[in-house]
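Batch manifest, entry 17 of 40.
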Amino acid sequence: MSFDAIIFDCDGVLVDSEILGLDDSAAYLRGHGFSWSPADLVRLFTGFRDDVFAVRLTENYRSLHGAEPAPGFFQGLIETRRAKRDQLKPVPGAAAALDALRLPAAVASSSRTEFLVSKMQRTGLYDFFAPHVYSADLVAHGKPAPDIFDYAAARIGADPARCLVIEDSENGVKAGLSAGMTVWGFLGGGHCFDGHGDRLIAAGAQLCVDDFPHLTALLDE
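Output type: C-alpha cells
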C-alpha cells in the first residue's frame, strides 16, 4: 500500500469532537419532538457541512410536525453542541502518529473555517498540517460531493488516485471515493458506536483502522 499523500477529515478523526455534546444534542432534539438517540444522530448527520445538515434536519422537522421549525431552532442545536467546546481533546494517538508521518498531509473538513482552525490549534494539531487545513466553506458543495478532497489534493500537488483519505463518516467515505481516492474508515473517535465500521465498509471504505497505532502500522507495511 503506497500513497503520495494522505488527507484527513478533522472531526472524529483528528479531534474527538463528534462525541462532545452528543447526549445534550439528542436531549435538545427530544425537546422538539424527535426520538433520536446519540447513535442515530451520528448515523444520520455525521460528515455534513452545516448548510446541508440544516436542510436535512429541517426536512425531518417538517415530516414530523407538518410545519417549519421556529426561528433559532437550528442555531440552538449548534450552540448546544458547542457548549462543551472547552473540553475538546485530540483523538488519542493523533499527535504521535502525525509526528511519525512521512507523507505530505492535508485536512479536508466539513467544519466552518473559523471553527476548524480553532479546533486544530486548541488541540495542538494545526502545525502538523499548516497551511494545508481546508474547510468545505472553500468549495461549492460539501461532502458527500468530492469538492473538498479535490481542492485539498490540488493544493498539495498530489494526484487524487495516489491519495489516501482517512474518514469516520459515510458521507466522507463517499466524497473521497467520488474524488477517485482510496478511503480507509477510522474507528478511533468516541462516537464510533456498534456497527460503525460496517457502515463505513458498506459506503465503500477499503478497510477500517481501529485507532492511530493501527493506522501507523498499516502505513509502515
